[in-house]
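In the current project phase, the collection of sequences with tokenised folds has grown. One resulting record follows, to show the layout:
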Amino acid sequence: MNLDDQYNPAHREAVNLQGKFHDFVKQGPSAYDPEATLLQHEIHELVGELESKRSPQDVENRIKIIQREIRQAQMRGDPIMHYDHLGELHRHYESLRQQVRKMNY
């Protein structure tokens, strides 16, 4: 499987997670929280990096940024979405990160 073929599943998963994020934010207490806007931007950038087939290292770094922001929101108790939804997103992004990491080899 060449590298280009490996981007398609990762891209589909990133788009799926983008939709899940939007759904969770709508269910959360504050959809207009600045932290939600920051995360939305980072997630949008991730999808764009996969569409433009940026290096797997760049994509993995973007995922790490998203994961860090999710963890910080959990620790601060930010009202962007329910705590359990933040944990679920973090787990999904970790799975995506592992998938992208394998693209390096």
Notes: The domain at 3-102 is CATH 1.20.1440 (de novo design (two linked rop proteins)). The chain has a mean pLDDT of 88.
